[in-house]
Automatic annotation (TrEMBL):
Domain FAD-binding PCMH-type per the UniProt entry, residue ranges: 1-220
Record's keyword terms, sorted: Oxidoreductase
InterPro entries found in the cross-reference section: CO_DH_flav_C (IPR005107), CO_DH_flav_C_dom_sf (IPR036683), Diverse_Substr_Oxidored (IPR051312), FAD-bd_PCMH (IPR016166), FAD-bd_PCMH-like_sf (IPR036318), FAD-bd_PCMH_sub1 (IPR016167), FAD-bd_PCMH_sub2 (IPR016169), Mopterin_DH_FAD-bd (IPR002346)
Organism field: Saccharothrix coeruleofusca
Pfam families: CO_deh_flav_C (PF03450), FAD_binding_5 (PF00941)
Protein name: Carbon-monoxide dehydrogenase medium subunit
Amino acid sequence: MFPFSFTKTSTVAEALRAGQRGGRFIAGGTTLVDLMRETVERPGALVDISALPLRDVATTSRGALRIGALVRMADAAAHRDVRTAHPVITEALELSASPQLRNMATIGGNIMQRTRCTYFRDVSAACNKRQPGSGCAALGGYNRTHAILGGSEHCVATHPSDLAVALTALEASVHLAGPDGERRVALADFLLRPGNTPDREQALRPGELITAVEVPALPHPSRSGYLKVRDRQSYEFALVSVAVALHVRDGVIRVARVAGGGVGTVPWKLSAVEWHLVGKRPSPRLWEEAAERAAEGSKPLAHNGFKVDLLKRAVVRQLSVVGGTR
């Protein structure tokens, strides 16, 4: 690990001033410390924001759920308002990492975590995320776990967060604070596809930090849930995951929210699936028809073509669980 300076802050204003001087924000440190140990990242300065007052979970006057950026994953998963309004968030969190990590890692840090692509974490391998212009070893290498959606000729690494898949399905937004004030950005716009700049992963401006995540209210009654398919039952990243939320009234689907994980360079909103569901009555046949649209636009690589069918099957499975017609 390379030398670095360390500054502890207690207010957002202090943190922003330190961030403007080039410091990297750190809270739970469950990702950044690993990357520093492996010399993948070499920040010269760290700014500890763990004492900032960003640990509240509350329901707004509009019925939206607002989760502070420094709420621990375990605390968010256990919170009554989260479990009641959006079980899909609780399930995504509880299927993430390990209990020990969930007790340390924060909501903001989970969204900001970097890819688990083995080539990114191997400093001897070509990786445009780590070293722009060096190439992408995954394109011609072993790419079983990589993306089939949203990739480019520069990067095909998947986004690792389970939580972000649930938040993408629910059309959440992130609240940001920075030198120019506060702003809110839809999560779908905040997490960036690689394109020609795979090293730029979030739409953050210099010195900005996440202060909260906001999830809009779903109409009642609604049901939701998260399915994670992986090589082993625990402490493993998703090959494919699916977040589903449905509002059914008078026997008809009025609102559908669906997103996939493990398949895209960012959590992937399955809009074509959603459009096919709305206005129809739940049925096994409808789930099958909708799922056929899940992998539209996919571009499988040499070793991950199985993800196309796996994604479709996972969509069918989770629609049947949430929709109640198994």
